[in-house]
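Chain A, query sequence.
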Amino acid sequence: LWSGNVLHLISDQPGGAVMRSRFWMGDVSPAVPILARLIRREMTSDTALGDLHRHCKAEMANLARILPGLYTAG
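Chain A, predicted structure.
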């Protein structure tokens, strides 16, 4: 079930790159309206959005640690 969209915008910067991410949570097909409302409510709850924030923060910290070594090795 489609429940959202994400877009990563990456731009070259002096000495590296910058990535900005945009999320559209709860972007659910209205084929079954009651189900769409329930999913949207769950996907945009404070808990779900807080979990997404923590996930992204940890993921970006890992990438910041790993990617420079990969970039210089290649």
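The beta strands are 4-13, 16-25. The two ends are 38 Å apart (CA to CA).
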